[in-house]
Design goal:
The protein is an alpha+beta fold and 121 residues long. The chain contains 3 helices and 5 strands. A 5-stranded antiparallel β-sheet has the order 1-2-3-5-4, covered by helices on one side. It is globular and about 35 Å long. The site of guanosine-5'-monophosphate has 12 residues, from loops. Zinc ion binds at residues 8, 11, 13-14, 53, 105.
């Protein structure tokens, strides 16, 4: 499947946005939703996605700028709500194969609650 060819109908995160697939929602606005990761890699692990389907960060254009900003705004709020704003956290966007992207709808990870290592694997 080439980037951008997946329709919203068979996209897992579009289905989460539409409540067709259950998730633990922690944030919602006109432009974005946030929910906890099904396989957490840290004590705090949440995902933030634009409501409008876009395959990955490389595919975004001027029409996505407001929702990109919203992902960061949402993550900052969630970091506070989930108690990691002071201790710190990591925001990650994996892009395509070498970036380790496994779900083909742009998403940003919020990871916190433990000391992150560098470089990432
Ligand atoms: P990626 O590897 O694409 O950057 O991240 C995809 C993330 O989505 C992974 O951390 C994975 O655990 C999470 N994930 C995959 N399927 C589901 C699901 O059905 N529900 C939730 N909440 N997270 C999922
Ligand atoms: Zn989608």
């Amino acid at each position: 499947m080439t980037p951008g060819s997946m329709t919203a109908q068979n996209c897992l995160f579009c289905r989460i946005v539409d409540r067709q697939v259950p998730s633990h929602l922690i944030y919602e606005s006109d432009l974005a939703v946030g929910f906890t990761d099904i396989k957490p890699q840290a004590p705090v692990h949440a995902l933030f996605v634009p409501k409008r389907h876009v395959h990955d960060i490389q595919e975004t254009g001027p029409a996505d700028e407001a929702s990109l900003l919203e992902l960061i705004r949402a993550a900052k709020k969630a970091a506070k709500d989930l108690g990691v704003a002071e201790s710190g956290y990591r925001l990650v966007i994996n892009c395509r194969e070498d970036g380790g992207q496994t779900v083909d709808h742009l998403h940003m990870h919020l990871l916190g609650g433990r000391r992150m290592t560098w470089p990432p694997g």
